[in-house]
Amino acid sequence: MNLITSAAQTMDTNDLLVLVNDARADFGEPAVRHNDFVARCRDELDGEYYETFVIKPDGPGRPSEALRLTRDQCKLVAMRESKGVRRRVLARLNELEERQGPSLPSDYIQALEHLLESKRSERLAIEQRDHAVETKAEIGSRREATAMATASAAVRQVQKLKDELGLGTRQAAVLAVEKATGCKFGVSGYVPLRRWCKERGITPSKVFHPTFGSVRCWPAGAWMDVYQINLADLFGADGELA
Question: Over the stretch 101-128, which tens digit does the pLDDT of each residue have?
């Protein structure tokens, strides 16, 4: 699965919607259904060329239509979102483009694809639930409990992966916080964070970084005490903090 193809620089609307709904959730906004999102794309891109294809669902339900958009078309569609959501989506699009370079290790791409796949699974579960409600289908309590447990596990997995990438609510790298806040901490900005950890006997973990090889991830408590930055507010708390 290619998030953004390296040759034509395109993305499918179902993948773009995952990024949009992920950002909307971080800012407390409701998710957009795929059919409504496709209609929004058509309205925004009226008169432009794009490829149309059909997605066949894995389970019950009718096939849905999807669009394959260029990088610039994706950004045009994202501009219709609120300020915070728009910035988050554009930043993620730029990040995905950079990380699709030929020198990027495959395991890092797989991690990003895993994150996107988890979000797609959440979206599919929500759409299936809405479809059942609209058609007044009867859902047994056992099936409903299983779906809720699966969605909860997916949320926890997404949060775990974010932490491992240095973009989580439990820990975050200086570079990630700088990018999210727009603030620069300087070359010695990590020093008070390191001092905070040393005083408490905490060894910060390392995560892979495509430019520097690896970077330190500093705990949420350090960010709050030193810089008054709440990682849960900054990156979004997608589930329980176990």
Answer: 544 444 555 666 667 777 777 777 787 7
CA distance 45 to 188: 46
In 3D space, the residue among 113, 11, 17, 15 whose CA is nearest the CA of residue 72 turns out to be 11
Phi-psi region of 33 (alpha: psi -120 to 50; beta: other; left: phi over 0): beta
Which residue bears the tokens 């639930």?
A: 129
Its sign, for the CA torsion 226, 227, 233, 234, is negative
- Whole-angstrom distance, CA of residue 242 vs CA of residue 237: 12
Q: How many angstroms separate the CA atoms of 192 and 200, rounded?
A: 13
pLDDT at 147: 61
Given phi > 0 = left and psi -120 to 50 = alpha, else beta, which region is 11? beta
* Cβ within 8 Å of residue 27, ≥6 positions away: 82, 84, 85, 88
Token pair of 114, please? Answer: 């895993």
* Sign, Cα dihedral of 228, 231, 235, 241: negative
Q: Quick one: the chain helix, strand, coil %, rounded to 5?
A: 55, 15, 30
Which residues pair with residue 67 across a beta bridge? Answer: 52
Residue 229 scores a pLDDT above 60:
yes
pTM of the predicted protein model: 0.40
The strand pairing partners of 11, in sequence order, are: 69
